[in-house]
Structure of Viral protein:
Amino acid sequence: MNVMTLTDAPEGPINRIYRNGNYVTQMDAVGPDVFKLTILNAKTTSEHVVGEETVET
């Protein structure tokens, strides 16, 4: 089951997609109109970053 959540954090909104209880992707705001997308390894319990990209709109 996949679940997407939105959290308001002090640094800006954080979106996470969870699969089987572990989050596998996270998008958070790192500045005005700048977002960071982090992809995690879903096969391990550790938060191993598979890829990370910063996008400015």
Summary: Residues 1 and 20 are 6 Å apart (CA to CA). Strands lie at 2-9, 12-19, 22-31, 34-40, 49-56. The radius of gyration is 12 Å. The mean pLDDT is 69.
